[in-house]
Design a protein that fits this description.
The two termini are 27 Å apart. Helix 8 runs parallel beside helix 9. This protein has a 7-stranded parallel sheet with strand order 3-2-1-4-5-6-7, with helices on both faces. Strands 10-9-8-11-12-13 form a 6-stranded parallel sheet, with helices on both faces. It is of the alpha/beta class and 374 residues long. The protein is 45% helix and 15% strand. The chain has 2 domains: 181 residues, Rossmann fold; 182 residues, 3-Layer(aba) Sandwich (Rossmann fold), CATH 3.40.50.2000.
């Protein structure tokens, strides 16, 4: 198939999972011979990061859904670049991209990565297709009134090779840094300290786990507004000596290599990139049975799911894994196999299938077979 020209749009000023996905997919598409251009506000975090990554970025002052200067700028950019498809990611840029698309005859594909309430189904009128990051997100959109035939599940890409490589030296260095010698199980969690991530549930679960496994060690990597509250909780509950707060880390593969179990207690999770990374590394996962996490773990076949906000259930799952080496090995193998489905190479092929499909105005067999599973 011929290479495409794809105009990515993003109105968000923040930089989180959605924006990381945008940069990852842009790079992957370029590697496969497509042309990618990005339109976003100059003051947004992604503008500088995209430039640093060597991507072509255009300033569009996205201050509202129908902000006239933004409409004019994006229309002019679309006329000049003649993209095959516009790929939008947030509310304002989806309206702007839809307007530019209507004026130029360019189809709009919208990405949706949130499980927050859908404010208005009219925001999904202009896109030809909506790509939900999980079946849970798709179900929410359909319940809000978005036509089911317009919504497709497209999981974010995961660089599984980065996490599946074994590096014994890195593992040894991390365990020495953590003073983890003699500790078992070593339980790892990575992620921003936000209310929905529920790291406090892991501290409570550790407190329940220690009587049976006094050498347990909880490792928390990340930063955020709830960090100090969780640190205070560990201190007040008397388990602070069994908790390591690492702050922001870039060496996640090394941290995973040193872990016995990965725990993810989030109570709102559209997808769940971190558990997939842990599965790719062969680390058995305990996660809340909510949102996209249920799909990732295939309802417990590739990991253990527990109710959200349930420290007792987390502790029971951790204890069960710690007692059963055979279960840890079986979940490790099942997790690696499942993670391969989310591999970035396969994901970007499915994404380009969506674009070709929308351009042709039909449904390709590859997309229907592998992309629209809820």
């Amino acid at each position: 198939m011929r290479g495409l020209t794809i105009l990515f749009t993003e109105s968000s000023r923040n930089f989180g999972g959605q924006e990381r996905r945008l940069l990852a997919e842009a790079g992957l598409l370029i590697e496969r011979g497509h042309r990618v251009e990005i339109a976003c506000p100059r003051e947004s975090a992604i503008f500088g990061r995209a430039l640093a990554a060597g991507l072509t970025v255009h300033h569009v002052p996205m201050r509202g859904s129908i902000y006239p200067p933004a409409v004019a700028a994006l229309f002019g950019l679309t006329v000049r670049l003649k993209p095959d498809v516009i790929y939008s990611h947030s509310g304002h840029d989806s309206w702007l991209g839809g307007i530019a698309g209507m004026l130029t005859g360019t189809p709009l594909v919208r990405c949706r990565e949130l499980l927050t309430p859908v404010r208005s189904k009219t925001a999904y009128v202009l896109p030809r297709r909506v790509l939900a990051c999980s079946g849970a997100v798709k179900a929410q959109l359909v319940m809000a009134g978005v036509p089911e035939g317009k919504v497709f599940v497209h999981y974010p890409p995961v660089n599984t090779a980065r996490f599946s490589r074994s590096d014994e030296r890195a593992k040894t260095a991390v365990r020495q840094e953590l003073n983890a010698g003699g500790h078992f199980p070593v339980i790892l969690h990575t992620g921003e300290f936000r209310p929905e991530k529920r790291q406090e549930d892991l501290v409570r679960a550790l407190e329940l786990l220690l009587p049976e496994f006094p050498s347990s060690l909880l490792v928390l990597a990340g930063s955020g507004r709830k960090l100090e509250a969780v640190r205070k909780m560990a201190l007040e509950s008397g388990v602070e000596k069994c908790v390591r707060f690492l702050g922001e880390r870039e060496d996640i593969p090394a941290l995973l290599s040193a872990a016995d179990i990965y725990a993810f207690p989030s109570d709102i999770e559209p997808f769940g990139m971190a558990p997939v990374e842990a599965m790719a590394a062969g680390v058995p996962v305990v996660a809340s049975g909510t949102g996209g996490l249920v799909e990732i773990l295939e309802d417990g076949k590739c990991g253990i799911t527990v109710p959200p906000r349930a420290p007792k259930a987390i502790a029971a799952a951790l204890a069960g894994l710690a007692r059963d080496e055979g279960l840890r090995k079986s979940l490790s193998a099942a997790g690696r196999k499942r993670a391969d489905f989310f591999d970035s190479g396969k994901s970007v092929e499915r994404l380009s299938d969506h674009f070709y499909d929308v351009i042709k105005g039909g449904k390709t067999a590859s997309c229907v077979g592998s992309c629209n599973k809820a």
